[in-house]
Write a structure and sequence with these properties.
The protein is α/β, with parallel strands linked by helices. Helices cover 31% and strands 30% of the residues. The chain is built from four helices and six strands; from the N terminus they run βββαβααβαβ. The chain has helices at 47-58, 80-88, 92-107, 125-136, and strands spanning 6-14, 19-27, 33-39, 62-66, 113-123, 140-146. It has a six-stranded mixed β-sheet. The longest helix is centred in the middle third of the chain and has 16 residues, at 92-107.
């Protein structure tokens, strides 16, 4: 398949306790498209993560990369000491709540998103969330975690 033309935009949508900022990239062609949530590394919603979202869009996916540091003022850093502080300042449950809010936002993109085909991919810190999200909701059709931590059994919710 040839790479598709895409459109990108910065979006915001309501979260549990804050307005979540995100980067969205989608094929310029008529939808609906399968979707993928691209979860950031500890650096924040940086250019690399936006590039990953754009690459998914070029392959036919509606991609959204939520800023999991929205609660901390949308920080982005290249300093590992600052990144560690930002990651430590993000409780796991808050990050999951923000990803669930992202899924709700995707569900409202009726013309663009197939809500039965939502996947998640994450890197490092985001890999941990890419493992945790499908343990929290059955609405995730596929998960691709890259070097995240496996959630402890006792923290997983029972999905019927």
């Amino acid at each position: 398949m040839a790479a598709q033309n895409i459109t990108t935009q910065e979006v915001t949508y309501p979260g549990e306790s804050v307005e979540i900022k995100a980067f969205a990239a989608k094929p310029a062609s008529k939808g609906p498209h399968p979707a993928v949530i691209v979860v950031q590394e500890w650096w924040g919603l940086n250019q690399h993560i936006k590039d990953v979202a754009q690459r998914f869009a070029k392959e036919g996916y509606f991609a959204v990369a939520p800023d999991l540091y929205s609660r901390q003022g949308h920080k982005v850093t290249a300093d590992p000491n600052v990144a560690a502080q930002l990651m430590q300042g993000l409780p796991l449950d808050d990050g999951v709540d923000d990803l669930l809010s992202t899924m709700s936002w995707l569900g409202r993109q009726d013309d663009d998103v197939r809500d039965d085909r939502i996947g998640v991919i994450g890197f490092c810190m985001g890999g941990s969330y890419a493992l945790k999200l499908p343990c929290t909701t059955k609405e995730i059709a596929a998960a691709a975690p890259f070097y995240g931590e496996i959630p402890p059994d006792e923290t997983l919710q029972q999905l019927d």
